[in-house]
Design goal:
Elements: E1 3-8, H1 13-22, E2 28-31, H2 41-50, E3 53-56, H3 60-69, E4 76-79, E5 91-92, H4 101-106, E6 110-112, H5 116-130, E7 141-147, H6 152-160, E8 167-169, H7 179-186, E9 193-199, E10 205-212, H8 222-232, E11 239-241, E12 260-267, E13 272-279, H9 283-298
Parallel strand pairs: 1-2, 1-3, 3-4, 4-6, 5-6, 7-9, 11-12
Antiparallel strand pairs: 7-10, 8-9, 10-13, 12-13
Helix pairs in contact: 1-9, 5-7, 5-8
Bound molecules: NADPH dihydro-nicotinamide-adenine-dinucleotide phosphate (NDP) and N-acetyl-L-glutamyl 5-phosphate (X2W).
N-acetyl-L-glutamyl 5-phosphate (X2W) is lined by residues 82, 115-116, 146, 150-151, 155, 178, 196, 198.
Amino acid sequence: MTARVFVDGAAGTTGLEIRERLTGRAGIDLITIDDARRKDAAARAEALNDADFVILCLPDDAAREAVTLIRNDRTRVIDASSAHRVADGWTYGFAELEPDGADRIAGAARVSNPGCYPTGFLALVRPLVRGGLLPADWPVMVNAVSGYSGGGKAMVAEYQAGGAPAFRAYALGLAHKHAPEMTVHAGLTHAPIFAPAVVDTYRGMVVEVPLHLHALPGAPTLAAVRDVLAAAYTGQPLVTVAYDDAATVAIEEHAGTDAMTLRIHGNAATGQARLIATLDNLGKGAGGAAVQNLNLMAGLDPVAGLSL
Ligand SMILES: NC(=O)C1=CN([C@@H]2O[C@H](COP(=O)(O)OP(=O)(O)OC[C@H]3O[C@@H](n4cnc5c(N)ncnc54)[C@H](OP(=O)(O)O)[C@@H]3O)[C@@H](O)[C@H]2O)C=CC1
Ligand SMILES: CC(=O)N[C@@H](CCC(=O)OP(=O)(O)O)C(=O)O
């Protein structure tokens, strides 16, 4: 069976990449609309209702509107925006996060892609909360840097015009749109302190959770934390827990791919750890997750169209 797929927002940073990945793929028939009509509600409604699967690569308000334009029970949705990540009736589209994640996505009509930063954060933290190493009410912090494509067309234009700062910390008021999904899907009772920054490189991200292991119940070792994470992702082609002696970690590590690496470093003597995820904001953080979810929902090869 051929799956008819419409990417709404295909002229944007995320949408363009997803459309390119799906173009010419066996088993997928892409529905497109003329560039001049790409924001025309009637043209979009027709495409949305023609499709078996739609991938929304839109600002939050436009994503909510797109869902209201679907007037049939057949069209299934993957939303890359942050509009539905903690919404009732939506399945969180992070296949590796829970043991039944892939099965739930495969059967869902409405799937919300995770945010880019939450993908790294949740990959590091959720197995520790689930496994009881990290109490649900622990005060967690997350420091992160993203390539500027994370800010969409407007930020790409700003950086490519020249003059934007090499490193810019933001979300200083601790009310970033990703905090709710980090809290809910990690199973935490308080939002983490989330300190993001954008740097002068196009794509890629480093997401870091520092932990005082000595203060945790049972004072788990670095090795114990690493083993819990490794067990959580065994057999997952996109997520690797590194057992390496890396002295540094580069934002470019997975730029242009859909892979994510998790590292557990630190000082065993002081009981302090740095849990670090590297991924591409446009890969596992957006387009890769959308293609992975489409594969699962359409019953296609789970790694088709993905770059490991
Ligand atoms: N960039 C990233 O790393 C990630 C982005 N996302 C999410 O994906 C979504 C898209 O982000 P991104 O690609 O970066 O953003 P962009 O700004 O690059 O692209 C958004 C696109 O949506 C179009 N658009 C806006 N309103 C409408 C509308 N009413 N109807 C049709 N099209 C519309 C815009 O049109 P126009 O070209 O005219 O501006 C633009 O082409 C966001 O919700 C974002 O949170 C998710 C994960 C990572
Ligand atoms: C650098 C930058 O600005 N990044 C964006 C996050 C990327 C995004 O908007 O998309 P998702 O929410 O879908 O991940 C931000 O912090 O708002």
